[in-house]
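re: the backbone from monday

yeah here it is again, tokenized this time
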């Protein structure tokens, strides 16, 4: 039996520990590993809340900021008990709940300031825990994004953690654009402040653009035994230089990635999707679920400033109950540059889509929260267009209804490492209209399993997006046979974790599948 440790900022196998797709991956991959007969431990920060009422395992002491720090490991009850999987969190008073999904902090003046402090402390505690065999003798440690890369730094440079060099370290890139860049020194949130006892290898660790900073995403790329991207096409994209906004590639790290590829350390494997134990929602319950969600949001004190807008959205839903739309397209995503840049860059593009929908009695539904400027943009357009329904909140019931009852899923991501939304929509026989980038290339085939647009420049892409959208509407209303074929083809695609994890064993873990 092989023994794995997953180290991550998110883990959706436990309650209230997810902000994005990383949480899904860290939930699903260990389940497949356990199904193969191997053992997995998963550890995340406690964020000042996840340890409450859970089982205290042990206290660990370690050097941090030139002093002896103490953290406590707790075993956490999962949403679903699965043999050979154990979930842990690390509690320390300085690892707190952030203002993004109660996990991450938004520090606009000094990006990653608070998060870097939290995750450096977390990584130090995990390094000490591994050294003390808290998870048994490990064969593989699987790290996820920049939040965990300081484990590799400690393995490489800290004399107390040389024992970690006997373990295979896998590093997964979920989103290369978020890199965890911090100063080397002269700042409370700096590498020297975290580890003042170490002589820092400035030359090897410096960011390629900011010479006085460490790039924690780059640390993972340079020091891991193998680097994993969450789709094959994203691997190819990030080895090319970015040219914002026409193309998003390596974001300054393309040379490190090309070097890793030359060393056969860079591997692209498509994420999977869950096809079992799916939450089923009653067909036709979308509007009821929407009204219920709006009333629940209105009770939340932090939603007070959105109350007028929520009521405005509720009024739209009431009208739609009386006179349902003949075509529904939808998007579910965090409101960020990655997901909605096309609309922020060109509000006229979104308005053109809404005009085309108006002509066929269609609506566009968007559900999400995120950057204030994106929320404001979508709120403003919602007031302007009756057929734009913007749910500025989070509701699993509404999301499940959207995936079940919409006709077309829109996913115009500026870039996409893999994407899970298109898989969830396709699982429900809902075609997707996607930007031909990253993992969306690997999952949606134009006019076969969905619709896809591209272009050399952002202006070309805007035009092609609108053209393909018009094409999709035309097929839906004028060629039912072709539409039904696309729907069936979409549903027939199976992106299983079982298949992906077999590739993990072969290419990442270097362990024979039993």
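seq for it, each position gets an aa:
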């Amino acid at each position: 039996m092989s023994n794995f440790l997953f180290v991550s900022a998110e883990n959706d196998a436990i309650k209230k520990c997810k902000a994005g797709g990383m949480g899904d991956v860290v939930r699903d991959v260990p389940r497949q590993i356990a199904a193969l007969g191997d053992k997995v431990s998963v550890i995340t920060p406690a964020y000042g809340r996840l340890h409450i009422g859970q089982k205290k395992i042990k206290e660990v002491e370690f050097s941090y900021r030139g002093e002896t720090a103490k953290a406590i490991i707790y075993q956490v009850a999962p949403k679903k008990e699965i043999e050979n999987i154990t979930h842990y969190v690390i509690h320390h008073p300085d690892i707190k709940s952030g203002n993004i999904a109660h996990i991450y902090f938004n520090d606009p003046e000094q990006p990653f300031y608070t998060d870097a402090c939290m995750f450096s402390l977390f990584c130090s505690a995990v390094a000490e825990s591994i050294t003390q065999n808290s998870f048994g003798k490990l064969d593989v440690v699987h790290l996820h994004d920049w939040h965990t890369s300081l484990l590799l730094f400690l393995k490489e440079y800290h004399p107390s953690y040389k024992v970690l060099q006997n373990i295979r370290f896998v590093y997964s890139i979920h989103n290369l654009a978020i890199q965890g860049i911090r100063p080397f020194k002269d700042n409370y949130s700096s590498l020297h402040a975290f580890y003042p006892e170490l002589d820092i290898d400035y030359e090897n660790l410096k960011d390629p653009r900011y010479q006085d900073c460490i790039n924690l995403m780059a640390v993972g790329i340079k020091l891991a035994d193998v680097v994993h991207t969450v789709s094959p096409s994203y691997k190819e994209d990030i080895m090319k230089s970015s040219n914002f906004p026409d193309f998003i590639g390596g974001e300054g790290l393309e040379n490190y990635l090309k070097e890793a590829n030359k060393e056969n350390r860079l591997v692209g494997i498509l994420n999977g999707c869950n096809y079992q134990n799916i939450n089923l929602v009653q067909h036709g319950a979308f509007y009821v679920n929407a009204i219920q969600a709006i009333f629940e949001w209105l009770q939340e004190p932090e939603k007070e400033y959105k109350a007028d807008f929520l009521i405005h959205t509720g009024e739209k839903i009431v009208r739609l109950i009386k006179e349902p739309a003949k075509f529904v397209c939808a998007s579910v995503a965090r409101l960020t540059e990655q997901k909605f840049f096309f609309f922020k860059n060109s509000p006229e593009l979104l308005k053109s889509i809404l005009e085309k929908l108006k002509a066929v009695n269609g609506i566009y539904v968007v559900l999400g929260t995120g950057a204030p400027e994106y929320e404001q943009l979508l709120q403003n357009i919602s007031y302007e267009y009756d057929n734009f329904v913007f749910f500025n909140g989070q509701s699993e019931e509404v999301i499940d209804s959207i995936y079940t009852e919409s006709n077309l899923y829109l996913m115009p991501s500026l870039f996409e490492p893999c994407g899970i939304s298109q898989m969830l929509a396709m699982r429900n026989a809902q075609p997707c209209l996607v930007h031909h980038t990253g993992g969306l290339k690997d999952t949606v085939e134009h006019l076969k399993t969905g619709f896809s647009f591209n272009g050399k420049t952002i202006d070309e892409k805007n035009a092609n997006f609108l053209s393909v959208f018009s094409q999709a509407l035309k097929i839906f209303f004028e060629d039912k046979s072709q539409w039904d074929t696309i729907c069936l083809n979409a549903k027939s695609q199976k992106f299983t974790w079982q298949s992906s994890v077999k590739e993990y064993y072969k290419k990442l873990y270097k362990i024979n599948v039993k």
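The first strand starts at residue 3 and ends at 7. The mean pLDDT is 96.
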